[in-house]
Amino acid sequence: MLASERRQNYLMMSLAISFFVVLALMVRWGGIPDVSESKFWLGVAVLGSTLVVFGGLCWWLFFSPLPAPAKNHSAQLTEASYVMLLAALFAGLLTLIGVFWDETWHRIYGFAEVLNDFLWAPHKLLYVSLGALTIVAGMSLYQAIRADRSDVRVGFRSHPYIGMFGLVAAYLMFSLPSDQVWHLIYGLDITAWSLPHILLLTSFGFVMIMLSAVFLSGERSSSLSLNNVFAGLAMGIGGVMLLVLVTDYDSAAAPVTQVSAKVVQTLAERPQWTYPVTMVTLGVLLATIGVRLSRRFGVVTIAALTIIIFRSFMVAFFNASKEMGVVSHALIVIPMLIIDAWQLLWRKKDEQPTMRFRITGVLVACASFLIVGIPVINGWLATYHINNESIVGAIVVGVIMSVWANAIGELFGGWLTSLNSGRLPTVPPTLLVRQFAVSAVIAVVIFLVVFFTAQPPKV
Fold it and tell me: Residues with Cβ < 8 Å from 81, sequence gap 6 or more?
């Protein structure tokens, strides 16, 4: 093994270990239910083992030695594949709307101990959208497998983006029952940082990132194309879902009145720097992956604008300003826009930016976020403030986590761009717009049917 490959393996192993450390801290700070700590961590270990199994499956499909090299199947994907991708995009959007609607109604009408929410309107929308995503995932997996029936690994490596998208979407569907089982054993989640929620949210975010990668595969246009726009929308949808991880903090905004005392207590027990550090980490991670995949300015900016516009529109549409805030979605835009714009300063367009250049951009983004974010957090959130002692922690940990997020984003994004992916078909713009419009109309009709037939629950 070459020294460079050995260093790469050590780096991947170190980042993987650090990921599990961060995951364990988040779960611990998410609040422990009214059970013994040993029983709680046993459940965490059992559920966390699914990540190990999934990681092993990914290694076998994409990295394990093959008897013979995989054939080159980098021909363009079919137009049917493109329709499938647009369907996944709008299924993801409907899922996002369902999650927002579900959380809004829970804050208005209560939780499972006071109502049966299994068949209420937000869940119906979630069932339809996740069902559509499941169908698309199944079709994606079939397309990956059928490339070479003699060895399924050859099929996945022939169309890795499609294969990975289907695989992660399948894992997302597999993870859904785990949330219900967790509730049956441990009761209601105290905060969004329960392990099932973290796995579901990150899985959905990963599905949207893979969808963005497929839209960007083979994209070499010098101008901002429709594929770039679709990729930015997909990444923005994933970013909104990931920000559910900080929705507990958003509920501390001044207009929001429906805040659980137990949530406030749990947030108070965490280090005060966790909120800004979580946001800047997510922002740097999304921006780094987006820049690495797109290799151009604009895609990450579209994703950032999607995040703030979607949240603001949902709060206004559902008249939910007393239940839901927009602080996190406004602040995460800062590091994303800066990292996206930073690449414009790199003059050697035929070369990848150096590590020094990238880290400098990350530090500028982190500093800008903290300079603007901490005063906004202290001025906007009524029940959560970062005191002077915690500002030092926010700066130190924020810088460390920003560099960490950039390293993971570079490693993951670099791996994705190195894959031998099938290219999207060259679809005429008129047909592309027509396909997009048809998908949009179907999504709107589904939402309107569910929305106008919705009945508030009986408490």
Answer: 143, 162, 424, 425
CA atoms in the 13 A half-sphere facing the CB of 21:
8
Residue 253 main-chain phi, psi, to 5 deg = -65, 155
Q: What is the pLDDT of residues 306-357, one digit of tens each?
A: 999 999 999 999 888 777 888 899 999 999 999 999 988 887 777 778 889 9
State which H helix or E strand residue 186 sits in. helix 160-186
User: Cα–Cα distance between 85 and 142 in angstroms, integer?
Assistant: 14
- Residue 299 has φ and ψ, to the nearest 5°, of -65, -45
Coil, strand, or helix at residue 77?
Answer: coil
Average pLDDT score over the chain = 80
Check residue 40 and give its pLDDT.
72
Tokens representing 225 are 């194309």
- Categorize the per-residue pLDDT at 139 as very low, low, confident or very high, splitting at 50, 70 and 90: confident
Name the token pair of 429: 């713009």
| Token pair of 245 as six digits | 């991880």
**pLDDT digit string (tens) for 171-216?**
887 777 777 777 677 666 667 787 788 888 888 998 899 889 888 8
C-alpha distance from residue 110 to each of 270, 324, 386, 458 (Å): 25, 14, 29, 10
Q: Is 214:89 a contact under the CB 8 Å cutoff?
A: no
**Encoded amino acid at 57, one letter:** L
Q: Is the pLDDT of residue 66 over 80?
A: no
To which residue do tokens 């009524």 refer?
382
Q: Which residue has the tokens 């979605």?
A: 329
Domain ranges, ordered by start, for the chain: 35-452
C-alpha 121/C-alpha 129 separation (Å) is 13
Helix intervals (H) in 63-120: 79-109
Contact 77, 162 (CB under 8 A): yes
Amino acid at 354: T
Q: How far apart are CA 235 and CA 206, in angstroms?
A: 9
List the beta bridge partners of residue 253.
381
Residue 128 structure tokens: 């339809």
State which amino acid sits at residue 257. T
Name the pTM for this structure: 0.87
